[in-house]
């Protein structure tokens, strides 16, 4: 307990503003039909988050249903093999349903119930958010419809079946690129049509205000736990916090409580797919430029005409052409750094973690691991990297096996 | 602040003086094929269109239903862009200096071009109004200022769910007309409750002086006529795209055959009124 403690600085960070802007990013860019629903949601959320009863209920479910707090684990053998900094893992993979997604779903389902909405809808990429939504819908007795790109339905058959077991209806989306962004379009269409009785549970820190703020707040439990756990474990806060970024909810969840701790470097890792230069990637902050999609202004992968382009990542959960607007802002003010690792690098880290630590990580999380593996050897042995292990890899068995030429 | 008068204002003034209602077809630029769009626009005017809404295709048209999304995808596959859409308006204007043209689409292609350059080009080629579906008024102050200065009408949506406060903001920033979305849903969805529309329009008119046109849900002569009784204009979009899609080789004929009876139905309202 005698190591130097990075101090929280006094400089306030108060984003978003009342209209949902993070500097020039975020906002509310939706058709008029949705505006009253978003205003009602903002009002309900503002009231709920200051209501001790709501917070108590949220915290009780995180503890008793989700299994929080999740531990932080020192990946000692892997750190030794890499020969540099010590890698610690925030074990979000140990949550009920196997990823961090459930934290946010509990929060939004409680809010849906508070607002008297009997039906919830969601979009999903890898299926993790869909499973988490179907899970909380069952838990709270809500009707549930999940939109999923037809291509993702193929890639993630087991998760589709899980959602059905949990009582959700899974609707494959055949339009556009048949992936996450198209599922999001379709979910928005459902919401605009059934706005009176339906609550849209968005799974990431994107979409129109208040979603980026609300999802961040629900996920911030990850970082708050780390702030307590790291000093107890190693006597100080980490030097680096590393998380993968697709939409960016697990990254915002662990970054947000660390924002005032200026000596802690925050690194978001995007999917470089087959390589940034090939154009087949999903790294919006690394290779995109600002634009407007799905209700917010943020970095997007788009062509010269402003059309959204198809993205690629080995991990369905990162295969999205945008990113949460707060990440765009953190990049702009320099508080967080964003890098990208390729499919191959992520896969190598995936296998490392399996072999050295007996943990099968999600391919999404493997991107964060891959970047940690990249920088750890260059750092002194007393440096500490905290990696958000946002999900477990059971869902990725088929993808990984297929990559190795194995049919399961 | 008074808007510089443009073709939209003169057209609605003339229609009002003739006690007629506007028929407003929507087509996606570049659908079913790029060379069809300008002849299609002329044919729609000949079949009785008072104003044309020209859709700028976008890869992620989240407020549109499957019909218009497919048209957008086809147009994009045909290489359609915002710049090419502006060129089509310019080509149309070479022969038609009267009929107002409103570009309808999503924000991102305009942002990619840059609002400054877009407004300048739009004014030059003869665009009269711009309806950006995902740009609600609270985010629209700067674009609206640029459009006002160029004499182009920023056109906003109002929905059945819009309260008075929203209507007042639209009344302040909007020009040309207000597009009332008759359904809570996407384009091409569901059926129309005319009595409910009539009630909402009466309420909105307390706060909005602009003409109010109604879209989303107009399918045939009967629904067009019902809407024309209560609104200042009728937009027909998905149904028109469907008709063209059913016979893309004869898009002009298909559009003419759909619009001619709609024109008659809309005009029958004035005759009986």
Question: How would you briefly describe this protein structure?
Answer:
Chain A has 408 residues and is α/β, with parallel strands linked by helices.
Describe this structure in words.
- The complex is a heterodimer of chains A (408) and B (273).
- By secondary structure, chain A is an alpha/beta fold.
- Chain A is globular and about 55 Å long.
- Helix content of chain A is 42%, strand content 18%.
- Chain A has helices spanning 35-49, 52-66, 76-82, 101-114, 128-140, 150-155, 157-165, 180-193, 211-219, 221-234, 249-255, 284-287, 325-332, 343-357, 363-375, 397-403; strands at 21-22, 25-29, 72-74, 86-91, 119-124, 143-149, 169-173, 198-200, 240-244, 265-273, 289-293, 295-300, 336-342, 384-389.
- The model of chain A has no long low-confidence stretch (mean pLDDT 94).
- In chain A, strands 3-4-14-9-10-13 form a six-stranded mixed beta sheet, with helices on both faces. A four-stranded antiparallel beta sheet of chain A has the order 1-2-12-11.
- In chain A, a hairpin with a 1-residue loop joins strand 11 (289-293) and strand 12 (295-300).
- In chain A, 61% of the residues are buried.
- Chain B is α/β, with parallel strands linked by helices and 273 residues long.
- Chain B contains twelve helices and eight strands.
- Chain B has an eight-stranded parallel β-barrel with strand order 1-2-3-4-5-6-7-8, surrounded by eight helices.
- In chain B, helix 4 (82-93) packs parallel to helix 6 (115-125) and helix 10 (221-230) crosses helix 12.
- The longest helix of chain B has 22 residues, at 251-272.
- The two termini of chain B are 33 Å apart.
- At the A-B interface, strand 2, helix 1, helix 8 and strand 11 of A face helix 3, helix 5 and strand 5 of B.
């Amino acid at each position: 307990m005698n190591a130097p403690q990075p101090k929280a600085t006094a400089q306030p960070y108060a984003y978003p503003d009342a209209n949902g802007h993070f500097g020039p990013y975020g906002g509310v860019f939706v058709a008029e039909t949705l505006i009253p629903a978003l205003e009602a949601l903002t009002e309900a959320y503002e009231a709920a988050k200051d209501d001790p009863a709501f917070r108590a209920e949220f915290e009780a479910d995180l503890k008793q249903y989700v299994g929080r707090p999740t531990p932080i684990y020192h990946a000692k053998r892997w750190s030794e093999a890499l020969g540099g900094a010590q890698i610690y893992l925030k074990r979000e993979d140990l949550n009920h349903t196997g990823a961090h997604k459930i934290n946010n779903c509990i929060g939004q389902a409680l809010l849906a119930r508070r607002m008297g909405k009997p039906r919830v809808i969601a979009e999903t990429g890898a299926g993790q958010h869909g499973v988490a939504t179907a899970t909380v819908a069952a838990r709270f007795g809500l009707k549930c419809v999940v939109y999923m790109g037809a291509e993702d339905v193929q890639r993630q058959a087991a998760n589709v079946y899980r959602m059905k077991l949990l009582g959700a209806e899974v609707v494959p989306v055949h339009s556009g690129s048949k992936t996450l962004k198209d599922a999001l379009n379709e979910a928005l269409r459902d919401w605009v049509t059934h706005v009176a009785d339906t609550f849209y549970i968005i799974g990431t820190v994107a979409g129109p205000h208040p979603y980026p703020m609300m999802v961040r707040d629900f996920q911030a439990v990850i970082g708050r736990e780390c702030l307590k756990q790291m000093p107890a474990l190693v006597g100080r806060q980490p030097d680096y916090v590393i998380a993968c970024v697709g939409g960016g909810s697990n990254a915002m969840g662990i970054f947000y409580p660390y924002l005032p701790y200026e000596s802690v470097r925050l690194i978001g890792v995007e999917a470089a797919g087959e390589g940034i230069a090939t154009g087949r990637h999903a790294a919006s902050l690394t290779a995109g430029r600002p634009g407007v999609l799905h209700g917010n202004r943020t970095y997007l992968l788009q062509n010269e005409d402003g059309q959204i382009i198809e993205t690629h990542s080995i991990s369905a959960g990162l295969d999205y052409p945008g990113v949460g607007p707060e990440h765009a802002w953190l990049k702009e003010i320099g508080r967080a750094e964003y890098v990208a690792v390729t499919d191959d690098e992520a896969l190598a880290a995936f296998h490392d973690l399996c072999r050295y630590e007996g943990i099968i990580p999600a391919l999404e999380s493997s991107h964060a691991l891959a970047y940690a593996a990249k920088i750890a050897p260059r750092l002194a042995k007393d440096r500490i990297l905290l990696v958000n292990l946002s999900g477990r890899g059971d869902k990725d068995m088929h993808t990984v096996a297929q990559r190795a030429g194995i049919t399961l | 602040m008074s808007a510089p008068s443009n073709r939209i204002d003169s057209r609605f003034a003339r229609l009002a003086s003739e006690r007629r209602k506007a028929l407003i077809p929507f087509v996606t630029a570049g659908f079913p094929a790029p060379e069809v769009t300008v002849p299609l626009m002329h044919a729609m005017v000949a079949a009785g269109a008072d104003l044309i809404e020209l859709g700028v295709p976008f890869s992620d048209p989240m407020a549109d239903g499957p019909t218009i999304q497919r048209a957008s995808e086809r147009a994009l596959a045909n290489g359609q862009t915002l710049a090419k859409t502006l060129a089509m308006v310019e080509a149309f204007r070479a022969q038609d200096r009267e009929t107002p043209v409103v570009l309808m689409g999503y924000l991102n292609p305009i942002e990619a071009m840059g609002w400054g350059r877009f407004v300048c080009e739009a004014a030059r080629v003869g665009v009269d109004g711009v309806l950006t579906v995902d740009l609600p008024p609270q985010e629209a102050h700067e674009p609206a200022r640029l459009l006002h200065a160029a004499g182009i009408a920023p056109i906003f949506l109002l929905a059945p769910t819009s309260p008075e406060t929203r209507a007042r903001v639209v009344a302040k920033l909007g020009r040309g007309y207000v597009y009332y979305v008759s359904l809570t849903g996407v384009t091409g969805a569901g059926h129309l409750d005319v009595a409910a529309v009539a009630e909402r329009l009466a309420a909105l008119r307390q706060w909005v002086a602009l003409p109010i046109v109604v879209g989303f849900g107009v399918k045939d002569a009967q629904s067009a006529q019902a809407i024309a009784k209560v609104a200042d204009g009728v937009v027909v979009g998905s149904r028109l795209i469907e008709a063209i899609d059913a016979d893309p080789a004869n898009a002009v004929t298909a559009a003419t055959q759909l619009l001619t009876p709609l024109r008659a139905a809309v005009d029958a309202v004035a005759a009986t009124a």
